[in-house]
């Protein structure tokens, strides 16, 4: 072997930080993407059941959205606008109001807090504290709300919290739905603490919750549990914040994941697929009476991403003027669930549990090693999947909502073969 036979370190290894993660699980260089597939620089296709961690509900380079974006850029449309009024922002706000808010009788004001999901969560926490004059925010076991300090304080994952490097205060944790395997009546512990002046729980400003915990392992809250939580918040004067960053924009069927429960949160955070195209954009929605912000009290340089407004408007026009996408997503949920249950019933399968809603599903394994082996084999055979859960024990499925039936079946087939392959490798 000569020195020329040894591959030189790539620029990713020599220049980019060690913090990089997804590229370690998928060690190729991607070049282009279309619909439900990415292609590496050698032209090999990969079916994408990751969808930008839920940022690409309508697929890669969706042609309808791309046309709107290209036309806007070709006309020298505003790219950077802070919070200035622009034609692109006006079109988005008008379309969001008529397509999303008014049909659902939602009264929300719309805030553009910054480009990412954690920006929206920070704004929600800050507003809840401002409105109530209280500091404590309650979140739930296995919750994930972002990587900035306020969001980390209400996140459950120990490894992510440890990265803060400072104490994370003014947050309290309660058990998520079925965390105690049905051994304790819903909210018995929470309400006891609220009613007891000696409990040590300062009266909370708000409760923040995901209706489906994505990073936490695809833990699905029952509609009745969410309704009981909303009622608990009402009785005790706490604001209810629903973090719909990953599960909103149709991932569970309805545009908002809380619609099934029939509740109206006080504050809602949206990001990821709200732009429709993978462009950075987030929203913080809240009841009008909570809009106590002073001008400029919460701001950010990149809160006015006008190209994202353009693609977001096109996505709403294309997919949310009627119920077609919703019905299609819900019908496919049954298809995915049946396939995963069949896989768990296979004598060679190692799946222990299946859970999900709409087109977000989790296949739980005995440990993280098995789940990681499944994702590794899936990648080798052309399918992108990631793990989630506190021990990385859940294989997470997030296919684009626009994936064809054939693509859905193809991905489920690769997953099934990967489960069997990984079971044989680990057993050996």
Automatic annotation (TrEMBL):
PANTHER family: DIAMINOBUTYRATE--2-OXOGLUTARATE AMINOTRANSFERASE, DIAMINOBUTYRATE--2-OXOGLUTARATE TRANSAMINASE. Pathway: Amine and polyamine biosynthesis; ectoine biosynthesis; L-ectoine from L-aspartate 4-semialdehyde: step 1/3. Pfam families: Aminotran_3. The gene is ectB. Gene3D superfamilies: Aspartate Aminotransferase, domain 1, Type I PLP-dependent aspartate aminotransferase-like (Major domain). This is Diaminobutyrate--2-oxoglutarate transaminase. PROSITE patterns: AA_TRANSFER_CLASS_3. The lineage of its organism: Bacteria, Bacillati, Actinomycetota, Actinomycetes, Kitasatosporales. The keyword Nucleotide-binding does not apply. Its cofactor is pyridoxal 5'-phosphate. Belongs to the class-III pyridoxal-phosphate-dependent aminotransferase family. Keywords: Aminotransferase, Pyridoxal phosphate, Transferase. InterPro entries: Aminotrans_3 (IPR005814), Aminotrans_3_PPA_site (IPR049704), Dat (IPR004637), Ectoine_EctB (IPR012773), PyrdxlP-dep_Trfase (IPR015424), PyrdxlP-dep_Trfase_major (IPR015421), PyrdxlP-dep_Trfase_small (IPR015422). Its EC number is 2.6.1.76. GO terms for molecular function: diaminobutyrate-2-oxoglutarate transaminase activity.
